[in-house]
Design a protein that fits this description.
Helix content is 41%, strand content 15%. By secondary structure, the protein is of the alpha/beta class. The chain has one domain (4-137): Hypothetical Protein Ychn, Chain: A (3-Layer(aba) Sandwich). A 4-stranded parallel sheet has the order 3-2-1-4. It is globular, with a radius of gyration of 15 Å.
Length: 138
């Protein structure tokens, strides 16, 4: 396995959020450095008040589909995906980086993001920290 894997999160869907959660927390548990760069709509996932919805469903059904998915996750012992993420971050192996330019473009303030999110970085900074890593786009 790679020593470091860096992800670019560009989508706000519930499915992408759960992929990030499972890959990030699993990699962190395997002692792999997991870095996530949130840009464009993916940045919404880091906002405290944002509730991701299942994509690919007609609008009225998106919320219902998300609730069904969360119910299934509970059967697998996942009560709150954000708690899993916080544990991985506290281990020091998983980090979430918001894109500074996207924050500026969308008028998003650092205070609107979860407290465990890293300081915003630009694309150049993220690419520099990704040197020697595998890079994956979600």
């Amino acid at each position: 396995m790679a020593d470091k894997i860096c992800f670019i999160v560009k989508d706000k869907s519930f499915e992408k959020f759960m992929m990030m959660t499972i890959l990030g927390t699993t990699g962190a548990a395997m002692d792999t450095e997991m870095n996530f760069f949130f840009t464009f709509w993916g940045l919404r996932l880091l906002q405290k008040k944002f509730k991701p919805k299942v994509a690919g469903m007609p609008f009225p059904m998106k919320g219902m589909a998300t609730k069904m998915f969360l119910k299934r996750l509970k059967k697998f012992g996942i009560e709150n995906p954000w708690e899993l993420i916080k544990e991985a971050i506290e281990s020091g192996k998983m980090k979430l980086y918001p894109c500074q330019m996207t924050m500026d473009l969308m008028g998003i303030k650092k205070e609107q993001l979860w407290d465990f999110v890293e300081e915003p970085v630009g694309a150049a900074s993220f690419l520099e920290m990704s040197e020697g890593a595998r890079i994956v786009s979600l």
